[in-house]
Amino acid sequence: MAPNSKDIPVDSPDRKKGYVVDTHLKLPSDIGTDYNFKRKWVWPNLIGFIILHLLGFYGIYVMFYSHFQTTFWMILLILASGEGVTIGAHRLYAHKAFKATFFLRLGLVLLQTVAGQNCMYIWVRDHRLHHKYSDSDADPHNANRGFFFSHMGWLMSRKHPAVITKGKTIDMSDLEADFVVMFQKFFYKPLYLLFALALPVTFPVWLWEEDYWNSLLICYFSRYVVLLHITWLVNSAAHFYGTKPYDKSMLAVESFFVSFLTVGEGWHNYHHAFPWDYRAAEYGTSFSFTTFIIDVLASVGLAYDLKTTPNDMVQRRAMRSGDGSHQFCIDKAVKATDANGNLLAEKDKNLFPAQTGEIHTNGDVKSNLTNGKSPDKVFANGKIHDESDKDK
Ligand SMILES: [Zn+2]
Ligand SMILES: [Zn+2]
User: Fold this and answer.
1) pLDDT at position 359, please?
2) 377-380/383-386 β-pairing
3) What's the confidence (pLDDT) of residue 363?
4) Centre of ligand 1 from the C-alpha of residue 33, in Å
5) How close is the Cα of 128 to the center of ligand 2, in Å?
């Protein structure tokens, strides 16, 4: 049940604010989204983002009049610091999907500092909150509040009280025990100024005599804006446009587009279904450059104890809760109707009833609609019955 402002006493200060504070004892599924909640802009952040974007776009224009090496340097910084976020902040620290040696952790925290997306500790806490309370008011970028909010609006809005109360309940003891993470947290501002601003901007000036202002615009402002939007697409587009082969009850989807831009973070329905999997996708390296890098790191001993998900567990989940778009479900739907092992029909995912009805995993698939209409084809007793004639 979503928090309801009608439940708050009229004279409560929380009612004047227009939202409910006490979500502390509610379960994730009970928090929901309170559509009466009026989010308030944090004006310094909003103005800061507008200035950042204006300078970032100007930097893209300046690229045409600067050394080409500066643009390559910017792309290299985006790729390297992006891996600091995806491998370091996301898969290693937020999900503990593998373990890393001290030197790998040091390198990943350094690259994550270059990305400038807040310190590792806060990044991980927000992301754990996102997974634990996905698409509810306790999710910092609740996708039920729309594309813009989940993309970047959340960073310029006052937090929903549920984000604050539930954020305090997230177990961060593993990060608190990590010297590298806590060192970065304590010295984040000077480290940010050095690794996200000073060094990236100064290198092109030193090495190929780039104009200082051009370097600042391209290697700081444009780089920052591009990487932010790529990262944000995982919270926005990958919760809106795509299929849900593993769990149709969640908003997270499989997105080739987001996976391409984020080098492997867009297989988001899988990732939300199996968040501990270091591949963040079912099919591994060919679908994720980041997974390939982790495999390389593991082959030289820097990463170890990589966690994956057994195929049969993935298939059972797809059968039980997916939208029927998983290849296993498509194959199963056709083969399940065949008592002699022969195909009774061409593979056609529209025949698969998971999108509309129930699945029996004993080799027999039945269809019954939840939207009130009759299906054209029904799998029952090992045969396909064409129901479309009945209505004629
Ligand atoms: Zn995640
Ligand atoms: Zn997500």
Assistant:
1) 32
2) antiparallel
3) 33
4) 21
5) 10
